[in-house]
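Title: Prediction job returns without error message
Component: structure pipeline
Severity: low
Priority: P3
Assignee: unassigned

Description:
Job completed but the reporter wants confirmation the result is attached to the right record. Sequence as submitted:
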Amino acid sequence: MAKKIPVIDSETQRSSSIAEFSQVSNNISIWQALTHNHYAANTLVAFKNDWNHFLVFCEKNKIAPLPASASTVHRFIEKMAESRKLSSLKRYVVTIGLIHKCHAYLTRAKVKKSN
């Protein structure tokens, strides 16, 4: 069952949180606050590491990480697929989605059906 992590409602808190999550950080406490301690410490460390990888990718490619476009996430996953296992790739998508959901960014991309 998925954890219900609320969206940050306060514009001031959201802006502050976005600023924190826009920089590579080893601070696990921002993840504890964001998720309201709903995840185990090891999971939060994995989220932190995943997000840091995404931030570095965005910085190298001069792309804004928040909000990330579907094509940015796609390019990141393609790059990580060169050296990571499927389980890690899935976790990257979950991590990026979690950050976007908590900061009230749209996370669903429309997918064209090929006929």
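Comment from assignee: result matches the submitted record. DSSP finds five helices and no strands in the chain.
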